[in-house]
Amino acid sequence: MLNATWLDTFTTLCEVGHFTRTAELLGMTQPGVSQHLRKLESQVGKPLISMDGKSFTLTPTGEAVLAVGTARRIQERDLQETIQIDDPDVGDIGIGCSGSFAMWLYPHLLERMHHAPELVIRLNAAPHTSVVTAVLSGGLDLGIIADRIDHPRLDAVKIGREELCLVVPRSCAGQDLDLHHLNELGFVAHPDGYAYADDLFSLNFPKDYKGADRLNIRTFVNQIGQIPIPVAQGIGYTILPKSGIDAFAGNQDLAIIHLPKPRHHDLWLISRRGRTNFARVAALSDLIRGAAEALG
């Protein structure tokens, strides 16, 4: 049985990545942190970290011990939640979704927190696979993803769908734009943009579209909130889910071109089995459903 105190110190050290800050966080001295590490290494029988100046990397044994420490924290948190009063306005909750939906959802979460000062909400914008992994591991309570998933430890509920939008400057509103005109305008690319282009353009321009790698790239942006800015300024077009457009503060300078064959992505709310029995998780689930429905 690993010593719980030493394991907690080691887990915190791995999360923080710095001996001095770990000591400050735990109310210890730096030698005290080092002593806990040495005692845990002695108990395990192998080194847990490899020092490189003031930084360190985990050994394979260290990675295994960290996994135990992380799992124990999740178990202890679940135990505390079980024995505490189940209040929808109290506690910690983690939510993961795409960057586009995060922009749309966050104002709804802020309003909720105004009415629940003791509710701590962590919103993580992450790719689909990362959201699923975090929900399964207990790192997140709820996830919103675009594809249905069947997993024995997960509940998945369809909460709506949103349109994949071809977004152009306001000056192009009402124009009948084909792929040639769009290439003249130039594509504002982003990490998901190439897949979105393949999805939407192959459906509407099957004869002319040759793949995202053949698009005329005007610029590339990897921050979701920045993607519509060049379009609003008349520099190119882009493709985004409707949530990313509706949440953009300058969307009055944008126009959505409705192509003959629209493309929609479903929205699925996922959680670990039984997790929505907690009052705050159930309340946030209802809030997320309402936010998804408001997308229309």
| Straight-line distance between termini | 54 Å
Q: What is the subunit arrangement here?
A: single chain
Q: What's the order of the H and E elements? A: HHHEEHEHEHEEHEHEHEHEEH
Can you tell me the number of structural domains?
A: 3
- Helix proportion range: 40-55%
Query: Looking at CATH, which topology of the largest domain would you report?
Result: D-Maltodextrin-Binding Protein, domain 2
Please provide the count of β strands: 11
List the helices and strands and how they pair.
Blueprint lengths: L3 H13 L2 H8 L3 H15 L4 E4 L2 E4 L1 H24 L7 E7 L1 H17 L3 E7 L2 H10 L4 E4 L8 E16 L9 H7 L1 E3 L3 H12 L12 E4 L7 H5 L5 E4 H5 L7 E4 L6 E9 L6 H15 L3
Parallel strand pairs: 3-4, 3-5, 7-8
Antiparallel strand pairs: 1-2, 5-11, 6-9, 6-10, 6-11
Give a short overview.
InterPro entries: LysR_HTH_N, LysR_subst-bd, WH-like_DNA-bd_sf, WH_DNA-bd_sf. The protein is an alpha/beta fold.
Labels describing this entry:
296 residues; alpha/beta; Arc Repressor Mutant, subunit A; D-Maltodextrin-Binding Protein, domain 2; 7-stranded mixed beta sheet; two-stranded antiparallel sheet; 11 helices; elongated
Commentary on this structure:
Keywords: DNA-binding, Transcription, Transcription regulation. It holds the Pfam family HTH_1. Residues 2-59 form the HTH lysR-type domain. Belongs to the LysR transcriptional regulatory family. By secondary structure, the chain is of the alpha/beta class. It has 3 domains: 4-83, Winged helix-like DNA-binding domain superfamily/Winged helix DNA-binding domain (Arc Repressor Mutant, subunit A); 91-161 and 265-293, Periplasmic binding protein-like II (D-Maltodextrin-Binding Protein, domain 2, 3-Layer(aba) Sandwich), CATH 3.40.190; 162-264, D-Maltodextrin-Binding Protein, domain 2 (3-Layer(aba) Sandwich). 44% of the residues lie in helices and 22% in strands. The protein has helices spanning 4-16, 19-26, 30-44, 60-83, 99-115, 128-137, 179-185, 193-204, 228-232, 242-246, 279-293; strands at residues 49-52, 55-58, 91-97, 119-125, 142-145, 154-169, 187-189, 217-220, 238-241, 254-257, 264-272. Strands 3, 4, 5, 6, 9, 10 and 11 form a 7-stranded mixed beta sheet that branches. Strands 1-2 form a two-stranded antiparallel sheet. The protein has a two-stranded parallel sheet with strand order 7-8. Helix 2 (19-26) crosses helix 3 (30-44) and helix 5 crosses helix 11 (279-293). The chain is elongated. The N and C termini lie far apart (54 Å).
